[in-house]
Design goal:
The complex is a heterodimer of chains A (159) and B (669).
Chain A: E1 15-18, H1 28-38, E2 40-41, E3 49-50, E4 61-62, H2 71-75, E5 83-85, E6 92-94, H3 104-108, E7 117-121, E8 124-128, H4 141-145, E9 151-154
Antiparallel strand pairs in A: 1-9, 3-4, 5-6, 7-8
Chain B: E1 10-15, E2 21-25, H1 36-47, E3 61-64, E4 79-85, E5 93-99, H2 103-109, E6 114-118, E7 125-130, E8 133-138, H3 147-158, E9 163-166, H4 169-172, E10 180-182, E11 186-188, H5 193-199, E12 202-208, E13 213-214, H6 218-232, E14 271-273, E15 276-278, H7 288-291, H8 301-306, H9 321-334, H10 339-353, E16 358-359, E17 362-363, H11 369-380, H12 384-391, H13 394-400, H14 405-414, H15 436-446, H16 452-461, H17 464-468, H18 476-491, H19 504-524, E18 533-535, H20 541-546, E19 551-553, H21 556-565, H22 571-593, H23 597-600, H24 620-634, H25 645-650, H26 654-668
The chains are: A alpha+beta (159), B alpha+beta (669).
Chain lengths: 159, 669
């Protein structure tokens, strides 16, 4: 497969922003995310992870930043088929049907922890990440269910 | 009906004595018993023999989740713990406790609907439950640690997302006031189950899981949860319109959309707990020593005189935010229930005013903070005479001490039924004008402990705010009309909430429904402040005043459970399941503890004292009429208080009916 130029520009994307000062660690965003995407309420399957320190009352969360120059996208050997850019929202998303589970995106994500998540299912690695609920008319479900306004959707600012 | 949805399908059975661990199918108990307390009650009926005491290895301590636990159902984060409680007075018996937090959700993510712990380990251990596997691990390094350090230790060992329930020194020492603690400020207190974990040498349960709760119809379930969230998002019905968020604390339960700003007081940062600074989640009891708010005053001298002034309900002294919060933090760290402080405070004053200035050589100085720091430590460590005496509950302590009769009576006033602290009865602490205290009285009489999950509903959801917020919320008359309209929407009649003691049939019918739904709340499990959602609150005062009624949605539970599980569950099914759980609980208490009308009547004396705000009392004849009406509406024998065979068979409980009948016959023989 001919390599695409990594200097190729991609459309900007909106993104979900978490404010740890407003968050109170209820974690309803996690179960809503996995309910919508997987039909399962699970913190582990969620594309957003809130990992509260219950004893220090700190509420950090980890969710894809939808980078302007997305390393995960450039790293994908099946770019635009497996790791794609949504035309409408700009979301960087994984098309699971095409994904060959090589883990390039997972490793390429510059954040710690990686904001492309990995889980094992039937001895296979599955990679998943926030897609801004690109098929959902009302936008990201985590933003909608957050009772504190700790999650906001920041609309993209053009290409 | 077996389904892969809602329930995880497995309950872990752990024997700490033999070290054997096995799993059993949840679906032998559900959907008939829903989950949580319902399943635990059926397990107890099946397995708990007469004569088993709280500290016996056969006492099963059951940590249970429900089908809605761990989902996005709003305010579904509570978990239930059931077993024989050493705190119940005079006879320890099977009861329950609940608390919020994340542990029950994590239990499901780890693959279990519950864990049932039997046996007493020979040395201190803890359970590590992780993705379908349960291990009994050495707990010697946790010995003596407070509840905060224990949690921190296990989170560092097993990962930051690990959820921990544990006991502190008080539980290890089998103090009857001891709690099972989780996170900051979530605890099971008045059931005394901390002492049971202590007896089992079980310091903690640490839980981690990567699984999830499968949904049968995700789109429908999400839509139902969103709709119900929109209805309840303005807060619990303690306040008619939107209550501000409690600013500096964690939400008490997994998936809760509310801040409960009026429940969780904001206290300043900087209180040292364990290894850092914390803001505590501070509830009504915890607040007692911060600003001294706890009691409502008696309106007239006549009533004050009957209660001998304030001797039974003296308002706790305000020690200020820092000291008050440090007292709470020490209490939680030691693993003691903070509610015991507000019962001891007025009682110590009764002692002093009646010439008892020291007990077992310990000088009583309830006005001094240091006294409470010392007292709590002595109790938690059973240190010295006073620590040993009061490590049992107050009534058992009073039984051992040579005290003036009025001091003994004052202790009973603090703990009027089942050795549980007075709560929502309209006498000792909160006012509860007619007809609200009638319902809470019936709940107290029938239940096995302080029926908090039930009377949080009957006190608040059933109409506390319209009766208490006149001025802000219109006139009492206009509020009452809206309340009537609300109840007509829910039940087709408002007879259950009409003032005065007329129409007892309507009141007892409502009490039966409330109690059945309390079983459901503790089985699904849902927040006891919000469900069943007869009423809802409003975004603003204007919208509240303009509304014709306050009706919420009493079908909310079924509307969430049906799409979650894929089962044909509607509101009649829910009501019937609640009734089934109550009847099995009743049968268990009849079989194992000779529960009867005579035992139900032991709290009758309390209601001969006037209600605080309207002065209403109950004579023996009216008490009996109410009780018999309640029994009849339950399908129970009015003379014995036993469920009739017809009722049990109607609930598919023929085996229970046979057992009760044979028990009654053998007793007669």
């Amino acid at each position: 497969m001919p390599a695409k130029s990594i200097s190729a520009t991609v459309p900007n994307s909106g993104r979900i922003v978490h404010d740890p000062e407003l968050c109170r660690g209820c974690r309803i965003c996690e179960v809503a995310c996995s309910a919508y995407h997987d039909g399962v309420c699970s913190a582990h399957l969620s594309r957003i992870h809130v990992i509260p320190d219950d004893l220090a009352l700190e509420f950090p969360a980890h969710v894809c930043k939808q980078c302007p120059y997305p390393s995960c996208y450039y790293a994908c050997p099946k770019r635009d088929k497996a790791m794609c850019i949504d035309e409408d929202t700009g979301a960087r998303y994984i098309n699971e049907e095409e994904c060959i589970r090589c883990g390039s995106c997972f490793r390429a994500c510059p954040f710690n922890p990686s904001l492309v998540w990995q889980r094992e299912e039937d001895s296979k690695n599955i990679y998943y990440k926030c897609d801004l609920c690109r098929d959902r008319d009302q936008g990201p479900i985590c933003v909608e269910v957050c009772p504190r306004g700790a999650l906001t959707f920041q609309a993209r600012g053009g290409k | 009906m077996s389904t892969p949805y809602g329930w995880m399908g497995k309950i872990s059975r752990v024997d700490l004595e033999t070290g054997k661990i096995r799993t059993e199918e949840t679906h032998q108990y559900v959907p008939e018993y829903i989950g949580g307390k319902g399943v635990a009650t059926r397990i107890a009926w099946n397995e708990l023999k007469r004569g088993v005491g709280p500290y016996d290895p056969e006492n099963p301590l059951m940590f249970m989740a429900g089908p809605l636990t761990g989902t996005l159902a709003p305010a579904s984060g509570r978990g239930s713990v059931c077993g024989i409680s050493p705190r119940i007075y005079p006879t320890p018996w099977f009861t329950y406790g609940t608390m919020g937090g994340d542990w029950a959700a994590e239990l499901k993510y780890a693959g279990f609907d519950g864990v049932v712990v039997r046996g007493n380990a020979s040395k201190l251990v803890y359970l590590w439950i992780n993705d379908g596997k349960v291990e009994i691990l050495d707990g010697s390094e946790l010995a003596g640690l407070d509840t905060f350090v224990t949690q921190r230790y296990l989170k560092e060992k097993h990962g930051r997302r690990t959820q921990v329930v544990c006991i502190g020194p008080a539980g290890e020492n089998r103090v009857l006031w001891s709690t099972i603690q989780h996170r900051l400020s979530n605890s099971i207190g008045d059931a005394g189950f901390g002492a049971i974990m202590g007896a089992k040498n079980l310091k903690a349960i640490a839980i981690g899981g990567t699984g999830g709760v499968r949904i049968a119809r995700p789109d429908d379930f999400i839509a139902a949860c969103r709709k119900i969230h929109a209805m309840i998002k303005n807060g619990p019905t303690t306040h008619p319109y939107h209550a501000p968020w409690g600013p500096e604390t964690q939400q008490c339960s997994h998936g809760c959309p509310l801040g409960c700003g009026k429940l969780h007081k904001n206290v300043p940062a900087g209180v040292t707990v364990g290894s850092g600074t914390r803001n505590m989640m501070t509830h009504c009891e915890d607040y007692a020593f911060i600003c001294g708010e706890r009691t409502t005053n008696y309106p007239t001298e006549d009533i004050r005189d009957i209660y001998k002034g304030d001797m039974f309900t003296r308002e706790t002294k305000a020690f200020g935010e820092r000291i008050g919060t440090e007292l709470q933090a020490l209490c939680e760290g030691l693993g003691l229930t903070s509610s015991f402080l507000i019962n001891y405070y007025p009682w110590f004053w009764v002692c002093i005013e009646n010439g008892v200035t020291e007990i077992e050589g310990f000088t009583l100085k309830p006005e001094e903070p240091q006294f409470w720091f010392d007292f709590m430590k002595k109790v938690a460590y059973r240190e010295g005479g006073i620590g040993e005496v009061f490590s049992g509950d107050m009534l058992r302590a009073v039984d051992q001490l040579d005290l003036p009769p009025v001091v003994k009576k004052a202790a009973l006033f603090q703990f009027p039924m089942w050795g549980q602290p007075a709560h929502r009865q309209g006498r000792a602490y909160e006012s509860q004008p007619t007809p609200l205290w009638i319902n809470t009285m019936l709940h107290w009489i029938i239940d096995s402990r302080d029926p908090m999950a039930c009377h949080h509903q009957s006190s608040f959801v059933a109409g506390w705010f319209p009766l208490h917020h006149e001025g802000k919320c219109g006139t009492p008359d206009s509020n009452m009309e809206k309340l009537r309209a609300t109840y007509r929407k829910a039940f087709g009649t408002s007879e259950g909430i009409e003032p005065g003691l007329n129409n007892i049939e309507g009141k007892t019918k409502l009490a039966v429904w409330q109690d059945n739904r309390a079983q459901i709340k503790d089985s699904l499990l849902l927040c006891d402040w919000l469900f069943p959602a007869i009423l809802h609150t409003f975004p603003s005062q204007e919208e509240y005043l303009e509304a014709d009624d306050y009706y919420g949605d009493i079908d909310a539970e079924a509307k969430m459970l049906a799409p979650l599980t894929g089962l044909d569950i509607d509101t009649p099914y829910i009501d019937r399941a609640g009734e089934r759980i109550r009847n099995v609980d009743r049968a268990l208490h009849i079989r194992n503890y000779n529960r009867s009308k005579e035992i139900d009547t032991t709290g009758e004396w309390y209601y001969e004292y006037p209600e605080k705000s309207d002065g209403s009392t109950l004579d023996r004849e009216m008490f009996n009429a109410l009780l018999e009406s309640y029994y009849r509406n339950r399908g129970w024998n009015a003379t014995t208080g036993h469920p009739t065979r017809a009722k049990l068979e109607e609930l598919d409980l023929r085996d229970v009916a046979d057992s009760i009948e044979s028990r009654t016959k053998s007793k007669d023989d």
